[in-house]
Amino acid sequence: MRNYEQYKRIVKFTFSALVIALEMVVFWYNWLHFYNPKMENPYNRTGHWLIVAVYGIFLVLFNILYGGLKVGYLRTGNMIYSQFLASVCANAMAYLQITLLTKHFQKVLPLLIMTGAEFFVICIWSYLSTRLYRFLYPPRSVLLVYGEHPVAGLMGKIHSRNDRFIVGETIHISSGVELIKEKIQRYEGVVICDIPSRLRNRILKYCYEKSIRTYTTPKISDVIIRSAESLHLFDTPLLLSRNHGLSFEQQIIKRMMDIALSLTALILLSPIFLITAAAIKLHDGGTIFYFQERCTKDGKVFRICKFRSMVMDAEKEGHSVPATEKDPRITPVGRIIRTTRIDELPQILNILKGDMSIVGPRPERVEHIELYTEKIPEFGYRMKVKGGLTGYAQVYGKYNTTAYDKLKLDLMYIQNYSLLLDIQIIFKTVKILFMKESTEGFDAEDAAAVVGSYRKEKTE
Fold first, then answer.
1. CA distance 59 to 65
2. pLDDT digit string (tens) for 106-131?
3. How far is CA 207 from CA 139, 143, 171, 202, 211, in A?
4. What is the dihedral of CA 375, 378, 380, 383, to 10 degrees?
5. Model-level pTM?
6. Is the alpha carbon torsion for 317, 319, 324, 330 positive or negative?
């Protein structure tokens, strides 16, 4: 097969342009036959083009937010889900635009039928584009180089994406750099997993020289350096890492956004609050809310507020017992509100109070902080900013993502903070709400490990 690597970006752009164009055609037909006649002065040809162009912009923006155009990066199902979310959001914006243009609330049915037609187009496009992309670009055969830490977890994750990678061989760094260089030449890429910096740099430079791509699991120091500013005070380059979290201006803007969005959410979601509170009370007559001590910025302890999803006195033994996948302590009502994340909504009150932010590292329990910090001294770096209702680790990780990986994800957020990043995370949170992997609890083994560590600490 010919090597189409140099055309990869063009192929991706062509696929993306095609699906956007198809959805714009569907919208054009809908606008022309159902909504344009409702205007006092219907548009002519130029007006139609403008309306369709604006709709196309909405599609592109929401697809960028949800990653719906990442052909070859997402699985087919995930791409359909992302595209459909983008389509729904674009259609909602289009309906708002139609309402303003016609000066009346119009029937939603044509727009709903259009959404269904777009979903059909998206499904076909996602399937065909993924199949063609994988035909042109089969999974890469890579060499995995590892150090002292176990790589079973990473191997499992790589195997779960066998559409992109195939680990042809693994080799321990103790085999020697020269032997590793020799093996590298047989593969299309190298995965470097947590090896000493001195040896890692030699491998990286060799791969750079030979134009062989590398995939490296970052260290904490890598995350910090990655966000550094370039200084050119003299002829030796300097990298500046400020290392103080958010600036004063960023904190002010972030706080203003927290207050505005949380107040709006509290008003809009008040019916859900009332229904959930009634369901919890009617089920077993217990308390509606559940309070738990968590750590936020600078290690400050506060009481986080949630809807109670477990039986009363679920932790009567006095220590943390993480929820497992089929935990018998979770009530029927609790199972629903945990799956839909409704149990997290009362934290809006914590945000208004100033204990939390909408976006930030997820605040951990006090005892968990102690356990994780004992094993990972850098875990406290997450508390350079306020804890959040959602965050970078929640969007890109899983509920049972390891503490070390959570730390790296949260540091990526802290070190690269921007208002735009907050907005992106808020939109992507909507995407992960109903994804199974994002709502997984600790499995029984992980739960036992945490409890065991806690008990051991208490007896020492």
1. 10
2. 899 999 999 999 999 999 999 999 99
3. 19, 12, 16, 9, 6
4. -150
5. 0.80
6. positive
